[in-house]
Amino acid sequence: TLTLPPTDNHAYGMRGKIKFMYAEAREWKEATGWIVKSMGVKKQTGDVEVGEIHFYLKFPRDMQGSLKLLFDALEGIVYHNDKQIVKFGAVYKHKDKLLPRVEINL
């Protein structure tokens, strides 16, 4: 169980033609990395299959940016590069105003 990643609009910005990550997203990515490391997950070297992903949200939102940030946060911990992901299960959105979070089955 992890905290929700920032939305795409709160994760990335543009300076001219250069895309950059906001501090909020960098901090979430780093904190998520430490949480996953503490779980003792062994880094995969070959193809990776990710199970179901459940987002528990206060409000509806676009999930594509959140998935990308989630997969980026797992790089170097669960796998070397998210290009190793060859399959992932269904992505579900649930409403939970009291405890927004993301649960991922690796």
Walk me through this protein's architecture.
This protein has helices spanning 8-11, 23-38, 64-73; strands spanning 12-15, 18-21, 48-50, 53-57, 85-88, 91-95, 101-104. Helix 2 (23-38) packs across helix 3 (64-73). It is globular. A hairpin with a 2-residue loop joins strand 1 and strand 2 (18-21). The protein has 106 residues and is an alpha/beta fold. The strands form three sheets. A three-stranded mixed β-sheet has the order 6-4-7, with no helix packed on it. Strands 1-2 form a two-stranded antiparallel ribbon. It is 28% helix and 27% strand. The N and C termini lie close together (11 Å). It is built from three helices and seven strands; from the N terminus they run H-E-E-H-E-E-H-E-E-E.
In terms of topology, how is this protein built?
Layout: H1 8-11, E1 12-15, E2 18-21, H2 23-38, E3 48-50, E4 53-57, H3 64-73, E5 85-88, E6 91-95, E7 101-104
Parallel strand pairs: 3-5, 4-6
Antiparallel strand pairs: 1-2, 4-7
Helix pairs in contact: 2-3
